[in-house]
Amino acid sequence: MPETSDNATTQPAVAPTAPERAPRVVLVTGANRGIGRAIAERFVAAGDRVATLYRSGDLPDGVLGVVGDVRDSASVDAAFSQVEAELGPVEVLVANAGITRDQLLMRMTDEEFDDVLDVNLKGAFRCVRRASKPMIRLRRGRIVLISSVVGLYGGPGQVNYASSKAALVGMARSITRELGGRGITANVVAPGFIDTDMTRALPEATQASYRAAVPAGRFAQPDEVAAAVEFIASPEAGYISGAVLPVDGGLGMGH
Ligand code: NDP
Fold first, then answer.
1. pLDDT tens digit sequence for 133-151
2. I need a labelling partner for 208 at 20 to 30 A (CA). Which of 15, 106, 131, 178 fits?
3. Is 239 a catalytic residue?
4. Global confidence as pTM
5. In the chain, how many domains are there?
């Protein structure tokens, strides 16, 4: 439409940054350390009401902590209920809690496989299942599943971990097809190598070889993942769903 109004110059300037928005209730699993902590800090800084389901440790300022374990459906249910009672229904869920139990395939025990799937995949499932009903009632929601570049790239000694992280893509896409018409998005953020306890636990030589494989030539800081999570969970990202957003310095390109 052509601009014909005489007073066009008196219109308020369009802000180049995102508009101010009402605080939302955000639940991040495992915000006591690492990537989850950085994600929680970002949402707090943005003015949101942030809670975490966590097992141990200390929390960033301004985060409501509810002790729980994503391996236990009753614990997840109780944590959501407490957050709902204190802050209101969860509008943004970040399923971040995760573990590794690396082992060569021929030596990997059933327990090592099951333990990783129970936290990384079923833990995310328990949380999204519990989050879905209130989000459907609200007719809005943002679900962010923290996967890994390894989910689609693969990793030696990580058959259990890669399987669990790849499955999160199918989970997000199925949620998108099921709930996409209700104002709910579900996306995957796939970090590469991030400087946390998880990567610090690797032998120095392994860390060096991984660093050399990353086009960016470095590991990322947890807040670089948090920035991607903040964006994909934002109201402005409402038309992005079922996507896999890599934060990996170019490591996984095309995977
Ligand atoms: P950390 O090992 O530093 O932290 C893992 C977090 O998950 C901790 O808060 C831990 O709690 C929590 N957690 C583990 N098991 C459970 C459980 N059963 N119930 C509740 N919380 C649990 O890992 P990162 O911060 O590095 O990783 C966070 C996520 O990002 C994970 O899903 C990981 O797979 C993924 N990721 C990490 C990458 C990296 O390079 N660091 C790369 C790609 C993906 P507690 O402190 O009590 O153990």
1. 999 999 999 999 999 999 9
2. 106
3. no
4. 0.93
5. 1
Contacts of residue 102, defined as CB under 8 A and 6 or more positions apart, other chains included, come to 157, 158, 161
Q: Does 16 map to a domain?
A: no
What is the full DSSP assignment across 124-181? HHHHHHHHHHHHHHHT-EEEEEE--HHHHH--TT-HHHHHHHHHHHHHHHHHHHHHGG
* Active-site hit among 54, 153, 161, 210: 161
For residue 93, report the phi and psi dihedrals to the nearest 5 degrees.
Answer: -115, 125
Strand-by-strand arrangement of the 244-247 sheet: 63-67, 49-54, 25-29, 92-95, 141-146, 184-191, 244-247
In a mutational test of the pocket of ligand 1, which residue from 41, 59, 99, 147 has the highest number of ligand atoms less than 8 Å from its CB? 99
Q: How far apart are CA 238 and CA 234, in angstroms?
A: 7
DSSP three-state, residue 106:
helix
161 lies in which domain range?
Answer: 21-247
pLDDT digits (tens, 9 = 90+) for 78-87: 999 999 999 9
